[in-house]
Amino acid sequence: MSIELLSPAEMAQADRKAIEAGPFDGMGLMRNAGAAVAREVLRRHPGAERVHVLCGPGNNGGDGYVVARMLAESGVPVSLWASGEPRPDSDAARAAGECPLKPMPLAGFSAQAGSVIVDALYGAGLSRPVDGDCARAVELVSALGLPVVAIDLPSGISGESGKAMGPAFRAGLTVTFARKKPGHLLMPGREFCGEVALADIGISDPIIEGLGVQTFVNCPELWLAEFPVPGVDTHKYRRGHVCAFSGGPASTGAARLSALAAARSGAGAVTVLSPGNALAVNAMHLTSIMLRKTDDRDELDAFLADRHPSAFVLGPGFGVGEKARAFAMAVLASQAGVGGLVLDADGITSFREAPDELFAAAANAMPAFVLTPHDGEFARLFPDLAADERLSKPDRARQAAARAHGVVIAKGPDTVIAAPDGRAAVNPNGAPWLATAGSGDVLAGLVAGLLAQGMPAFEAACAAVWMHAEAGVRFGPGLIAEDLPRALVPVLAELVAMRCG
Ligand SMILES: NC(=O)C1=CN([C@@H]2O[C@H](COP(=O)(O)OP(=O)(O)OC[C@H]3O[C@@H](n4cnc5c(N)ncnc54)[C@H](O)[C@@H]3O)[C@@H](O)[C@H]2O)[C@@H](O)CC1
Ligand SMILES: [K+]
Asked: Which residues bind AMP (predicted)?
């Protein structure tokens, strides 16, 4: 598996362990890293009139000296600029010693149209905002619109959080080593990195596996083994029964979107639980999906006892208030074999004054609990975590999940899914087309549909987020939420084929 996302500290540990294990020492890894970058520069920019290599004082700069040497050996006109001397006796100093070009001070950096920039100023070691000559170089390159190939990370972007620590290069290509880092996928890092190419520099899989990494790229490899595929002998209730709570007569569409998505995900039966005064509106728009009047806790309890549903979606279009709180508590307290509760939108906001009550109920609940907040909703339930600027999005979501005793889907262009046990996955395939009304309702329904089919909560949440994004990307411009359930069909077909193949 190459789906681990390594923090800068984990990457440094991987480097150390690889050096201990051999065959490459630090210099060997650096030569491999530089060679991989030089190859990409030659491949992507064969017509470059000149390549400017900008080296910092650390090992990222060391990679830069290797790139400069190899490009020069290939006959490319190279200008080498350095922001400072490498530490004596470091690998970077050795790489500089092997490079036949003499670096010019970065303070005098200038470049012309037709040039390509190799950014080797800072990588994993970035510890504060880029300033001085480096910041001026960032500005100049951006003003000239020159293509940038970043080594490991664009200088100025945190590998841990993806945050821009002051000025940062906007790369067209970032070449990183062994595994991607969270900052390659988290915003705004994802945008600053451009395309990310992964190079093997001689750090073996067992070394990475030994690190106990808890952060992953959200892709089918992470959860496919748990993806539900019905057996030939199945029947509809064995494929799970999802229920979506509808709002009043003027806000019923959201629950129907959740219901449709749950049905598309493979749940065998889906019911919309509707207030009596919205039954007629819902009935007019439902065909294969069932409908049941549920106005109060008694009616919900009777339904639970009578039909033994598998998973619930509560929140889309539901309205904020006591009724949402009572229904959520009833589902979490259910001993009737309910597999999961997905709390979204108004369901989340309903607990803004009393999140601890919700979390205490989830701690003792039989149903798996999944929360799907966007940033605003996240801040309502976890104001302290939302305000803590030191936390990366995965760490924020991890802490929220542990506190909530549930899986948290922290939505956004870089959706993060986190479990109470510390696992977190960063979604790589989000697209702007998904930022449309009702898109979240579809996601909530998908999660519930997968929970109903017995998929474990973290994997169900990850799979739903990935499928939702994939359907949106493939549909592209013009997407509205109503399109998503249908757009899921080819994605599902491929997953089932992969699972069975
Ligand atoms: N053996 C290894 O450790 C390998 C490291 N590799 C490269 O090494 C890089 C990491 O090297 P380093 O740990 O030396 O870190 P960097 O080269 O990213 O940074 C060097 C040093 O600069 C200082 N610094 C950080 N931010 C600054 C700022 N904004 N302004 C001024 N100074 C600042 C810090 O003291 C930091 O340690 C990776 O990104 C990768 O490119 C690769 O060569 C593969 C092998
Ligand atoms: K860099």
From this structure: 411-415, 440
- Nearest ligand to the C-alpha atom of residue 24: 1
Q: Domain containing 194: what range?
A: 8-213
Cβ–ligand 1 distance for 152 under 6 Å, the answer: yes
Rounded mean pLDDT of 400-411? 98
Total number of domains in the chain: 2
Q: Classify residue 1: in a domain, yes or no.
A: no
Measured from the alpha carbon of residue 159, the closest ligand is 1
Q: Is the pLDDT of residue 234 over 80?
A: no
pLDDT of residue 1: 60
431 and 352 in a common domain: yes
- Nearest of 432, 429, 404, 431 to residue 418 by alpha carbon: 404
3 state DSSP class of 391? coil
Q: What is the mean pLDDT of residues 25-46?
A: 98
Q: Is any ligand 1 atom within 6 A of the Cβ of residue 339?
A: no
Share of the chain above pLDDT 70, in %: 99
Q: Please work out whether the CB of residue 154 comes within 6 Å of at least one atom of ligand 1.
A: no
67 lines ligand 1 (CB under 6 A): no
What is the pLDDT at residue 238? Answer: 77
Residues 161 and 259 in one domain: no
The residue nearest atom 36 of ligand 1, judged by CA position, is 125
Is 339 known to sit in a ligand binding site? no
Q: What's residue 230's pLDDT?
A: 80
Task: Report the C-alpha gap between 430 and 415 in whole angstroms.
Answer: 8
Strands (E), 304-367: 311-314, 340-343
Sign of the four-CA dihedral 403, 404, 408, 413 = negative
Report the distance separating Cα 26 and Cα 16, nearest Å.
Answer: 8
Q: What CATH number does the domain containing 389 carry?
A: 3.40.1190.20
Q: How confident is the model at residue 320 (pLDDT cuts 50, 70, 90)?
A: very high
Domain end among 188, 213, 238: 213
Is there a domain that residue 273 lies in?
yes
Q: Which of 17, 27, 127 to mutate to test the pocket of ligand 1 (most atoms within 8 A of CB)?
A: 127
Identify the pLDDT of residue 233: 72
Q: Which of 196, 213, 230 is the last residue of a domain?
A: 213
What span, in angstroms and rounded, lies between the C-alpha atoms of 170 and 149? 9
Q: Which pLDDT score, from 0 to 100, does residue 210 have?
A: 97
Name the pLDDT band for 336 (thresholds 50, 70, 90).
confident
Domain membership of residue 3 (yes or no) is: no
Ligand with minimal distance to 157 CA: 2
Does residue 127's CB lie within 6 angstroms of at least one atom of ligand 1? yes
Q: Assess whether 257 and 352 both reside in one domain.
A: yes
**Which of 20, 40, 122 has most ligand 1 atoms within 8 Å of its beta carbon, as the pocket-test mutant?**
122
The verdict on the CB of residue 151 being under 6 Å from ligand 1 is yes
Give the per-residue SS3 of 355-384. HHHHHHHHHCCCCEEEECCCHHHHHHHCHH
For ligand 1, the distance from its centroid to the CA atom of residue 20, given in whole angstroms, is: 20
pLDDT of amino acid 260: 98
Same structural domain for residues 109 and 206?
yes
Predicted TM-score (pTM) of the model is 0.97
